[in-house]
Write a structure and sequence with these properties.
The protein has helices at about 5-25, 30-35, 50-55, 60-75, 80-110, 145-155, 155-160, 165-190, 195-215, and strands spanning about 225, 230-235. It has about 240 residues and is mainly alpha-helical. Helix 5 (about 80-110) packs antiparallel against helix 9 and helix 8 runs antiparallel to helix 9 (about 195-215).
Length: about 240
Amino acid sequence: MKQGIWAEFLAVLATMMSLTILIAYSGADLSVSSHFYQSNGWPVGEQFPWKWLYRMDGYPAIAIATFGLCSACSGGIMSRHRLWRRQGIFLVLLLVLGPGLLVNVVFKSHWGRPRPRDIVEFNGSQQFRHPWQPAINNSKGHSFPSGHCSAAFYMTAPFFIYRHRKPELAKRWLVGGAGFGLLMSYARIAQGGHFLSDTLWAWGIVHMLAIMLSTLLLSNRNTMVYAPQQGELQDA
């Protein structure tokens, strides 16, 4: 990785750890969730648009990754679309390795952190745990991190494709994707499905992985330029 990429990666990691500590010592995980809990459950989360967002799940992310797969195939077949190949592979790998493997398989399925609706403080039977307190043998703990939110924050993926070539378009994707991720985070917290820190790490894991993958697949040495004399895109 280039020095600048390392700096960006470490900055995100440091931010994640600092915010996690702040959330823990301020009690924000419990206090934020308590605003949505009532004796009859989590009624806010059952209302529109929060229930609708939950049902939407990862379909928008899958749509972008599918477009990426088509782009990668087109780039592999047609030389004039060669630039699309790496961009498409980036979109596919980020979804498969981020929300797919790291979030839902490695962490969520094995970390064992109870959901808000399952802990004693909210009329459940399990004990509250911080993000750094795994309960590996707890088959019912699927709170850390949030799968829905990781798929929502994945919508920032095009930012990494356009950040150097089309910065204004990149910013729109970043703001739009982050906004969608925040809305999904609100929905999942309001439904008692996740804590604030779960949604934070959903963003962090996807964003840090995107930094690494974009360095491997979308770095400057892989940019393309148009060669008028040959009428097609060539390696720069």
